[in-house]
Amino acid sequence: MIASVAAPLLRFDGVRIETSGRAGSEARTLLEGLSFDVAAGEFVAVVGESGSGKTLAARSILNLLPAGVRQTAGRIELQGRDLSQLSAPEMRQVRGAQIGMVFQEPMVSLNPAMTLERQLAEGMQLHRNLPSDEIRRQSIAMLERVRISNPLRCLKSYPHEFSGGMRQRIMLASVLLLKPKLLIADEPTTALDTLSQREVLELMVELAHDNGAAVLLITHDLGLVARYTERAIVLEKGRLMESGFTDEILANPQNPYTQRLVASLPRGRADLVPPPDSAPTLLQVRQACIEYPGRPGIWRAGVPTQVVHGVSLDVRAGEIVAVVGASGSGKSTLGRAVLGLKPLAAGTISFDGIELAAMTAAQRKQFRRDAQLVFQDPYSSLDPRRRVRDIVGATLRHVDDLDAAERRARVQSILEEVGLSSFGDRFPHQMSGGQRQRVAIARAVVSRPRLVVADEPVSALDVTIQQQVLTLLQTLQAQYGFACLFITHDLAVVRQIATRVVVMSGGIVVEEGPVASVFAAPAHKYTRELLEATPSLEVAVLPRC
Amino acid sequence: MRVWLRHAGSGAILGISLVGALLLTIAIGLVWMPYNPIAIDLAHPLAPPALHHWFGTDEFGRDVLSRSMLGARISVLIALATVAVAITLGTTLGLLAGYLRGWTDRVLMMGTDTVLAFPGILLALALIAVLGSSNGSIILALSTAYTPSVVRVVRSTVLSIREREFIEASRSAGDSALETIVRHVLPNVLPPVVVLATSLFGWAMLSESALSFLGVGVPPPAPTWGNMLSESRPYMDIAGWLSIVPGLCIAGTLLGINLLGDALRDWLDPRRES
Asked: Taking chain B, what is the end-to-end CA distance rounded to the nearest angstrom?
């Protein structure tokens, strides 16, 4: 344990952050009386869901609060110096040089119009008086440290030439080049898939250790907290709920909110039973290949890129099958093809014994009713100009055996089942992410489908909401008995919801089988890597020093 | 209505008042005008505004107020019809090009880009030269010139909307392409279209004036605000009212239409309720 004799590196003392409440709106407190310390070299997590104020807390350290939001009480001290009293030029000396920040979105946090050499050099030119060949030498060394192959070429490149994971590593390099005493990482890997997430975080831990930098990791992911931090601070709605050693908080949470948070983590369930062997095969995919058209010229067709290469899988009636894979593995594309929304380049997909491509108009109509889709992003999957009632009812528009009154009744009853009975007249923007996702589920289930394709339905949601939505999906599945193709990158979710898992990588199926046996004894290297990279509460790689 | 007005703000109220005044003027003009707007009275040319000629008379002694009232009817009719044709046609083509992509898109865009390559007024001149000068041909010529810009705006909006997942949701519910376009794409492209329509209205009114100025507009002696303005040019220093009256009419109408358009766009947005 770090001796806390010296003054802490960073100290929050009763910090309050409010909106300034101009233009007729009331002043609101976004962060109330927040106090905590971070010692030099310590790894501390700030945990919370959206709206908890965790990002505001991080930004307030560097005085980067959004317009109209300000700190109205308390002190934020860096080695005993009150940061909120610093003048703008003094603050600039602190930013970058003493406190580095890594943002969530690697796609937008690097300037697309600048070469990486200039971006990496910018901080050193500002804060360290070094000759340019020395700056270059250090940049190259740092890029090697973050395992960018061919750093010389990298310096001449622009950000768009790199993947999200690589960009985040480059971002990390540019921040750590200045050897800050404190590194603030605001959801640094939320936009990345499991494997790149692990890569980036492990590099971050390693480099911070080498430089003796303390890390403030802002995250909603308790698995990451368990794995990478020594102490944690739990925030809810701008208030400190609990703080202490990570393993103690997670193993034995004292605060009701923390308890709820820990309980919300997806867990393996023993009570999941696969459908009986007599259950007929509902969906049959054989050797499916799917292509995206290339960019056409004026007189020639584009060269298509194949993203799914010969995938076969079966889903039986009433079965929940998880399709797991990193981004770009072709799993979402496959989900679209299963619903007939993407044409196959080769192979066949049959639903209930009828091949999709060979369906008659009447069969296709029935198929549209029997197979439904739940999307990942509830912000883009609901038409902003329609009310919830219309959105859910749209699925029934082509169901001929119901009259208008029956349709209304069906919509109302499904809204009740998803707990939104009074939300029929609302527009999507008047609801939270979790409520929207429940609307999306209601829309999929209202026609009593036999197959629901759920494409990452909970990955855009907060942990507690995620649990509610998963539970809802399970309840509805148990009630209506539809089969489900559950596409996800999160193995913990797979364990909770599915009985069988299909692992995809690079457009092919690398492994499939019952969840329990695949997770206990993964046969393929990729599955093993994925399982190792998935953080869970049980593992903590960081020994407390 | 009162609730809506309170939300709408002073801009919308001014917009509604101006457009309301315009419509009222046109309505009154249909049943009564102080003088016959085309009757020539050579005894009183260029009379300054006075009690019996509120806005004075022009070089032929015609009553400017009466001519403005009739001009309102013709100018607004031409601008309105032009905008209606350009918006309807442009939105339809833009929806098709943006949603269907592929060959439809390429052919339609080649067509619109070709039309766009000509300056709008030149194209209108050429068309009128072929069709002859009448209200109908002016409307046709101006809407042909304006349609491509509507197509472009609508198409680019559709391109972003068609990638949103609710479009896929509509397709997976069994909607045909036409149903998806009408139910989900069209409502979401309306806000930019409304704004575009109001600015086109202004352009149409000015172009009609420009055509009249070039002598191919609405044929005399029928008055429009545009040709009144152009005929007033030689007398600007001795009879300023001849320019000021139609000028103010055009400016006020454009202001009103634009404010109304902004209010309409906000009013159409469901987010306004929260």
From this structure: 18
Mutate to test the interface with A, among B101, B103, B110, B172 (most CBs of A within 10 A): B172
| CATH number for position B142 | 1.10.3720.10
Closest CB from A380, A384, A443 relative to B270: A384
pLDDT average, residue stretch A30-47:
90
At B165-221, the pLDDT tens digits run 899 888 888 888 899 999 999 999 988 898 899 889 888 888 887 887 787 888 777
A331 touches A506 (CB < 8 A)? no
> Cβ of A383 and B188 within 8 Å?
yes
Is position B222 within any domain? yes
Give the pLDDT score at A25: 60
Q: How far is residue A166's CA from residue A151's CA, in Å, rounded to a whole number?
A: 12
Counting Cβ atoms within 10 Å, is residue A441 exposed (0-12), middle (13-18) or buried (19+)? buried
Say what the pLDDT of residue A452 is.
95
Model pTM score: 0.79
Please indicate, yes or no, if residue B234 is contained in any of the structural domains.
yes
Beta bridge pairs of residue A150: none
Which DSSP symbol is given to A444? H
Whether the bond between B221 and the residue before it is cis, its omega within 30 degrees of 0, is yes
Q: Indicate the pairing of strand A43-47 with strand A214-219.
A: parallel
Tell me if ipTM is over 0.90.
no
| B161 min Cα distance to partner chain A (Å) | 9
Size of interface A-B (CB pairs under 8 A): 67
Segments forming the whole domain that contains residue B158? 62-268
For residues A434 and B104, give the distance between their C-alpha atoms in angstroms, rounded to a whole number. Answer: 39
Position B32 in a domain: no
User: To the nearest whole percent, how much of chain B has pLDDT over 90?
Assistant: 24
- Closest-CA residue to A58 (of A100, A109, A2, A4): A100
- First-to-last alpha carbon distance for chain A, in angstroms, is 5
Q: Judge whether B46 lies within some domain.
A: no
Of A372, A380, A385, the CB nearest to B165: A380
DSSP A276-334: PTTSPEEEEEEEEEEEE-----SSSPPPPEEEEEEEEEEEETT-EEEEE--TTSSHHHH
CA distance A471 to A271: 13
pLDDT averaged over chain A? 86
Q: Give rounded-to-5 percent helix, strand, coil for chain A.
A: 40, 25, 40
B26 burial class (0-12, 13-18, 19+ CB within 10 angstroms)? middle
Q: How far apart are CA A121 and CA A106, in angstroms?
A: 18
Interface test with B, best of A382, A385, A447 (most B CBs within 10 A): A385
pLDDT in tens, A11-38: 999 889 888 766 556 678 888 888 999 9
- For B47, how many CA atoms within 13 A lie in the half-sphere containing its CB? 21
- Cα–Cα distance between A513 and A494 in angstroms, integer? 12
> Distance, in angstroms, between A461 CA and closest chain B CA?
17
Interior/surface letters A183-205, b for 16+ CB within 10 angstroms, e for the rest: bbbbbbbebbbbbbbbbbbebbb
* Cα distance between residue A193 and residue A331, in whole Å: 13
Which strand ranges, in their side-by-side order, compose the sheet holding A305-316?
A305-316, A281-292, A346-351, A354-355
> Average pLDDT, whole number, for chain B?
85
Buried b (16+ CB within 10 A) or exposed e, A15-36: bbbbbeeeeeeeeebbbbebeb
Task: Please check the confidence at residue A272 and state whether its pLDDT lies above 80.
Answer: no
Q: Does A435 touch chain B (CB under 8 A)?
A: no
Asked if A447 and A406 count as a contact pair (C-beta separation under 8 A), the reply is no
Q: How many CB atoms lie within 10 A of CB A244?
A: 15
Structural contact between residues B239 and B48, judged by C-beta atoms closer than 8 angstroms: yes
The two three-digit tokens of residue A331, written as one number: 């799993």
Q: What are phi and psi of B78, to 5 degrees?
A: -65, -45
- How many domains does one find in chain B? 1
